[in-house]
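Regression test case RT-17, inverse folding.

Input:
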């Protein structure tokens, strides 16, 4: 699991990203569960995610951040990345960000994909 903390801050909201290998829906659920066991991530407002499974097709979850999973999924499909999950976590800062939140999801997803490409060290 690669975790990139405090990637972005905007009007009180904070963003992070996590990525790692998954091959089944059960592994996706376990990845999300493991991420949420980290104290800081357990307190997050949203964990939007997407994965393209070679045997299960595209999957996504918005976790209350409507449309964010679709944004992540589109980027994974464009990249041709299968059997990996990208999770963008947001701690809501009390101010609605409107469309800017999608730009932040894109920024965090790009950072996660770049970390995968360069083989960033995993954090547990």
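Golden output:
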């Amino acid at each position: 699991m690669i975790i990139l903390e405090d990637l972005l801050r905007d009007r009180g909201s904070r963003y992070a990203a996590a990525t790692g290998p998954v091959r089944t829906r059960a592994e996706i659920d376990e990845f999300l569960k493991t991420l949420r066991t980290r104290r800081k991530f357990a307190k997050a407002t949203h964990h939007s995610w997407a994965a393209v499974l070679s045997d299960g097709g595209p999957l996504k979850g918005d976790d209350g951040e409507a449309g964010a999973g679709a944004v992540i999924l589109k980027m994974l499909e464009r990249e041709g990345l299968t059997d990996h999950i990208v999770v963008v976590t947001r701690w809501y800062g009390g101010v609605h960000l409107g469309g800017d939140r999608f730009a932040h999801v894109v920024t965090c997803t790009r950072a996660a994909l770049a970390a995968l490409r360069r083989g960033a060290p995993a954090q547990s």
